[in-house]
């Protein structure tokens, strides 16, 4: 196997032992009520600590921002204590882990908010259905955030970043992708504002910049990263000129000197919908000069080839890490990836099945 993926890499202030990152993966195993991380989650992350860096599953920064059953949060002291088991499990194996900070915006159903509407850049409604504790329900129209509301949400991000530090993480990543709140501000199909947060791309990236500045105030730029999805429509969130929009976003990342930038560029069979739009990573690579991480549907060989060709500096693997806890070892010897079983039910259902019961190569051989 080409060893391009097995060279160490400096991701801002984080030293990673290889270039195989574990992408953020929502798994729905937190304890409810309270959205509290638990020992089962610690076992799961510890099993996957051979990744150069683990990016945690998307984690709610506030009650307002979390609308996924049994996803974890990071706003309460109980959640902070719960996360400490996961960071310890990863660190005990010599691994590194950063927390992905999540506000879902209009994708939160009012059932999670005591019947109140969700919030977004503008008063829009997501297409499709929300997963709620009572089953699938249509999304409802969001309330447009006022300028004062925006400042409050930025402070929620800052508080979450402080809690992530208390929980023992190595840094934080802002979830700016996949049609959630940051993405709702970035794209012109969901940002219909006429104030300083709307209109041209330079205004629509203002919220992104302010949140990142808040995270940097806690962690320093070298331990802050962001995930963007500069592709086509995702959860009803789209843009009429993605090249201009994501060039402006990349310039924010460059100006702030973030530790790394992760881009999700799915192929035609990717989750959150297929996309055939031109990839923006070559353009973004010319603007952002720090470490670039690409994600979505890579094999080991494809990942090594893109790193060696200079298209990116590391690869974030998502679904392969679900069923291959020792994914770097498999890539190193060119072994086939073990398939996911009971998909997609096991991605999100509680319990060990399809979560912590996948064997390593060594266990299979034994």
Largest sheet: 8 strands, parallel, barrel
Order of helix and strand elements from N to C terminus = EEEHEHEEEEEHEHHHEHEHEHEHHHH
Radius of gyration using CA atoms only: 19 Å
What is the approximate shape?
Answer: globular
In terms of DSSP E residues, the strand content is 15-25%
**Helix/strand structural class:** alpha/beta
Mean pLDDT: 95
> What is the terminal-to-terminal distance?
23 Å
**Number of DSSP strands?**
14
Number of helix segments?
13
What are the segments in which pLDDT stays under 50 over at least 5 consecutive residues? none
- Proportion of residues in helical segments: 25-40%
Sheet with most strands: strand arrangement: 3-4-5-10-11-12-13-14
Can I get a quick summary?
The chain is α/β, with parallel strands linked by helices and 366 residues long.
């Amino acid at each position: 196997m080409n060893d391009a993926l097995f060279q160490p890499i400096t991701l801002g202030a984080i030293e990673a032992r290889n270039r195989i990152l574990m992408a953020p993966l929502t798994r729905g195993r937190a304890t409810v009520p309270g959205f509290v991380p638990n020992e089962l989650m610690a076992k799961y992350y510890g099993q996957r600590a051979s990744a150069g860096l683990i990016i945690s599953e998307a984690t709610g920064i506030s009650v307002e921002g979390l609308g996924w059953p049994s996803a974890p949060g990071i706003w309460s002291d109980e959640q902070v204590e719960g996360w400490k088991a996961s960071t310890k499990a990863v660190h005990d194996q010599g691994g590194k882990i950063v927390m992905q900070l999540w506000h879902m915006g209009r994708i939160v159903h009012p059932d999670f908010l005591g019947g109140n509407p969700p919030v977004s850049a503008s008063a829009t409604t997501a297409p499709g259905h929300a997963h709620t504790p009572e089953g699938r329900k249509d999304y409802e129209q969001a309330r447009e955030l006022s300028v004062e509301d925006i400042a409050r949400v930025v402070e929620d991000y800052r508080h979450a970043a402080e809690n992530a530090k208390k929980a023992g993480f190595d840094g934080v990543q802002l979830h700016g992708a996949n049609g959630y709140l940051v993405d709702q501000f970035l794209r012109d199909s969901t940002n219909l504002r006429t104030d300083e947060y709307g209109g041209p791309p330079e205004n629509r990236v203002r919220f992104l910049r302010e949140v990142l500045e808040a995270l940097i105030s806690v962690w320093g730029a070298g331990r802050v990263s962001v995930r963007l999805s500069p592709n086509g429509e995702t959860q009803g969130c789209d843009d009429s000129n993605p090249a201009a929009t994501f060039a402006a976003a990349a310039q924010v990342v460059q100006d702030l000197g973030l530790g790394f930038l992760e881009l999700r560029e799915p192929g035609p069979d990717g989750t959150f919908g297929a996309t055939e739009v031109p990839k923006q990573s070559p353009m973004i690579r010319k603007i952002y000069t720090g470490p670039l991480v690409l994600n979505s549907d890579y094999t080991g060989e494809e990942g090594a080839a893109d790193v060696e060709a200079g298209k990116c500096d590391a690869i974030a693997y998502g679904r392969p890490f679900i069923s291959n806890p020792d994914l770097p070892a498999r890539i190193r010897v060119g072994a086939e990836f073990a398939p996911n079983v009971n998909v997609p039910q096991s991605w999100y259902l509680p319990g060990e099945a399809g979560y912590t019961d996948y064997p390593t190569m060594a266990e299979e051989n034994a």
